[in-house]
Amino acid sequence: MLKEDFTRACHLLRQMSAHPELQPDDKSIHLFKPEINHICACCHEGRWFRCRILQISSDISTATVNYLDWGMVIPVQIEPTYIRRLPNEFYFEPACSMLCHLDGVPTSNDLIPSCVIAQCIHLLSENEYEVIVNDYDNVTGGKIILSIDGQIINNQIEQLISPYKLMSFEEELIGQFQYELKLSVGDEFKALLSSFDGKDDSFYVLVINENTAAIDRAMSELQEDHIPNREYLQVPQIKTLVVARYVDDKKYYRAWVKSVDIQQEQALIFFVDFGNESYVSFSDIYVCPESVRTLPWLGIRVRLTNETMAAQELTTFWKLTEAHYIWIHINDVFKDAYGVQVKLDYTVYLQQERLKMATPKRSIHKATQTIADEKVIFPRNSSERNSSLLTPTKPDQSIMGNENFLRNIFEMVNSELRSLRHRINGTDEASQDRHNQLMQLLLSIVNANNSNNQKKTC
């Protein structure tokens, strides 16, 4: 309210306190029936105020009202002592207070601690402020900037609540990226795949070099036997670096607090050196030591340059390269990730396929069941049961012969691929053509062998 509004509001208080219909012995008090959005008179601390009814309880015992001239929202009992019909002469005065919002300050946030809210209220407890109105809406009110003695209150409150401000997914990624290991366009590194969440086509890798190895060694001091006096957090603060216990291996790692659930006493944690998330109990979170607080995050968020992988494609890529080294070449630096080209050692894939083909088909024995070719066979007597548990099924010789043949073919093709790097001195197209020919040869042999097996089965 402005100064003149404050004068009017005080004058209304004096007038209403003297009005005959608002006296304790008034005979017409039983005529008023409260309804939502109706204007009424409410008594608070011995004085009568003009109010609008916002809500009525289901048992019609209380009403939540807005004090038109002072801005408060307070519940009152629906009794003549506390709520009555507003006399007609008090309808003509406009409201003395205006609904306003501090421009740039969020209207609500359940994560802000009560102590911080108290500091904000203290900043808004002066008698007079200078006001700049940036915008106004008939429903939502005005957007204003408050200042006193040249100090902008909006900025001070924003600074207080900034650590608790909720961020969008994009803002979160941009904020986290600034803490990751700094790489440059043209850099090429040996790396391991770390994690992916499937929300988009990005994934996290761990770069393998001397710097990251040194940082990893420094992380050893986070474990319990290295920190006898750890400082636990009663309620972790969002957007802060902490140390949290990972549920799978029970070890402690650096982590970023994304959100907190005070009722469940747990926080959603982002493990900064790996790129994965997990809910962690407050009792398993403590203050991050200064010795590792400023070290770069080892989990590097990347995406393929000029390529977008669907979720299934990313899963296939992950299975192909999991637990094996890859090489990444930095092509771009985006605001939330690195654009990379991934180089794979194709012999790893051949070794995996060779291992699959070389594994003989045999029964799998568990408890008293014999599982063969996805059919469960129950042994008929004790001697048969014992033999099924102790004796593996004898492999079919024709299948073993085919597998030995395929193993030799894989060895031949793999040897040809290895020597290809040294023999071909032509263009990249020639190398690729030869590579394609070898792969077509390999696939045709596998298909032919599968066809022969099907014929033998028939």
UniProtKB/TrEMBL annotation:
Listed InterPro entries: SNase_OB-fold_sf, Tudor, Tudor_domain_containing
SMART domains assigned to the protein according to its UniProt record, in alphabetical order: TUDOR
Q: Which Pfam families match?
A: TUDOR (PF00567)
Ranges that cross the membrane: none
Q: Where is the Tudor domain?
A: 235-295
State the PROSITE patterns in the record: TUDOR (PS50304)
Give the PANTHER family listed for this entry: FI02030P-RELATED (PTHR22948:SF29), TUDOR DOMAIN CONTAINING PROTEIN (PTHR22948)
Report the protein name in the record: Tudor domain-containing protein
The organism's taxonomic lineage, starting at the top: Eukaryota, Metazoa, Spiralia, Gnathifera, Rotifera
